[in-house]
């Protein structure tokens, strides 16, 4: 196994695959009759690497769930077809637009890293199973729940909860090792979405990027997000100067600027 990627077993049949690139985490939950892959990496070649790695662990038929439509979580799905692909309806709608935004992000990332060649990008696989409310999935002696806890990192984040092991795959609603990414975020809603995750009382939370964390870490991040939300509300009300908000924020100024850019004076959120 290359040092660039490795499996980490979090509980019996519940694994995370950690990648040096993008500090990405991809999930795998294995039952007696099937396995669930949580996110598919950044391009078809990377998806094929992931599928081969999954096949070294289990021969159970795969189902895919996408936590959200950012390129690094969803452009590798083709390698898993004809697996069922689950996502939130707004994730489906985003990917059904053809992937122009995701491809631009993927190319920008690849070039920023000075990679020797651009990734081969094909139109994204459009999810064919939609998560509206809770989806209770039986993988055979292994139950998982797929749910959208509300707007946060995007307007369509989905998390995967394994109640019998206490492992929660949180997508980019939780971030370890770097600030949360607000590019497509709903800063005023994000803390409530994380509070929903904490209600599950998770033992281990797997962020979309960074190392697995515990509920204490997630609580602290939720509290930081709440501080930022309060700053955003005050700036939005015209009661606080942006520069003061930047220095008072628990996150880096660049992160806070992006969060502030997501606010609109005519409404709570864009
Ligand atoms: Zn993301």
Structural account:
- Helices cover 32% and strands 22% of the residues.
- With 270 residues, it is of the alpha/beta class.
- Helix 5 (190-199) packs antiparallel against helix 6 and helix 7 (242-248) packs across helix 8 (253-261).
- The longest helix has 22 residues, at 215-236.
- The model has no long low-confidence stretch (mean pLDDT 95).
- The structure holds zinc ion.
- Zinc ion binds at residues 68, 70, 153, 172, 181.
- Zinc ion (ZN) is lined by residues 68, 70, 153, 172, 181.
Structural descriptors:
270 residues; alpha/beta; seven-stranded mixed sheet; five-stranded mixed sheet; 12 strands; 32% helix; binds zinc ion
Which class of secondary structure composition applies to the elements?
Answer: alpha/beta
The main sheet orders its strands as 1-2-3-4-5-6-7
Hetero groups in this structure are: zinc ion
**Gap between N and C termini, in Å?**
44 Å
Anisotropy-based shape? globular
Percent of residues in beta strands = 15-25%
SS element count, helices: 8
Query: Based on DSSP secondary structure assignment, what is the total number of beta strands?
Result: 12
Helix content, binned percent: 25-40%
Which sheet architecture does the biggest sheet show?
A: 7 strands, mixed
Q: Strand-and-helix sequence, N→C?
A: EEEEHEHEHHEEEEEHEHHH
Provide the fold topology.
Blueprint: E1 5-11, E2 14-19, E3 25-30, E4 35-38, H1 44-57, E5 62-65, H2 71-74, E6 85-87, H3 89-96, H4 100-112, E7 129-130, E8 135-138, E9 143-147, E10 159-162, E11 167-175, H5 190-199, E12 204-209, H6 215-236, H7 242-248, H8 253-261
Parallel strand pairs: 4-5, 5-6, 6-7, 11-12
Antiparallel strand pairs: 1-2, 2-3, 3-4, 8-9, 9-10, 10-11
Helix pairs in contact: 5-6, 7-8
């Amino acid at each position: 196994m290359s040092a660039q990627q490795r499996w980490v077993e979090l509980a019996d049949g519940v694994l995370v695959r950690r990648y040096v690139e993008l500090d990405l985490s991809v999930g795998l939950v294995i039952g007696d009759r099937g396995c669930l892959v949580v996110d598919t990496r950044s391009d078809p070649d990377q998806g094929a690497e992931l599928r081969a790695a999954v096949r070294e662990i289990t021969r159970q038929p795969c189902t895919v769930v996408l936590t959200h439509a950012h390129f690094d979580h969803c452009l590798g799905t083709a390698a898993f077809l004809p697996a069922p692909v689950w996502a939130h309806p707004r994730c489906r709608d985003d990917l059904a637009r053809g992937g122009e935004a995701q491809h631009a992000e993927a190319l920008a990332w690849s070039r920023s890293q000075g990679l020797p060649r651009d990734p081969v990008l094909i139109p994204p696989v459009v999810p064919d199973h939609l998560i509206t409310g809770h989806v209770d999935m039986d993988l055979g002696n292994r139950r998982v729940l797929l749910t959208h806890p509300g707007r946060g990192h995007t307007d369509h984040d989905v998390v995967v909860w394994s109640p019998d092991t206490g492992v929660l795959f949180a997508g980019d609603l939780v971030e370890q090792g770097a600030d949360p990414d607000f590019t497509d975020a709903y800063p005023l809603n994000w803390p409530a979405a994380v509070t929903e995750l904490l209600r599950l009382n998770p033992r281990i939370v797997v962020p979309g990027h960074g190392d697995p964390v515990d509920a204490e870490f997630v609580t602290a991040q939720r509290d930081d997000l709440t501080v930022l939300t309060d700053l955003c509300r005050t700036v939005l009300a015209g009661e606080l100067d942006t520069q003061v908000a930047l220095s008072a924020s628990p996150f880096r100024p660049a992160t806070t600027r992006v969060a502030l850019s997501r606010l609109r004076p005519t409404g709570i959120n864009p």
